[in-house]
Amino acid sequence: MPWLAQKINIISKQNNGKTLVLEVKGVDDERNRIKRAAMAVWIKTVNKQGGFGQGCFGVVFEPARTRDVLLKQARECKNGE
Predict the structure, then answer these.
(1) For residues 33 and 39, what is the distance between their CA atoms, to the nearest angstrom?
(2) What's the superkingdom here (predicted)?
(3) What is the DSSP string of 19-73?
(4) CB-CB neighbours of 78 under 10 Å
(5) In the chain, at which end, N or C, are there fewer CB atoms within 10 A of the end residue's CB?
(6) pLDDT tens for residues 27-72?
(7) Cα(80)–Cα(62) distance, integer angstroms
């Protein structure tokens, strides 16, 4: 599956043990939306299967906002996403 080959820009282990996957993109387009949908399925499946830990993901389109998005995603990941 081609979406498995996507580059992941930031992987962050959260204090609660969950793993946050964050991609940095320049623009949003149909291909990126498809990749995000695939990532959502993958994260949900891995979380449900168990044995590999729990994770969540996010995307940032403006590098200057990376910190804000990291903090937002960390909160959401903490709350069960």
Answers:
(1) 10
(2) Bacteria
(3) EEEEEE-SS--HHHHHHHHHHHHHHHHHHHH-SS--EEEEEESSGGGHHHHHHHH
(4) 14
(5) N
(6) 889 988 998 899 899 889 988 998 888 888 888 888 788 888 778 8
(7) 25
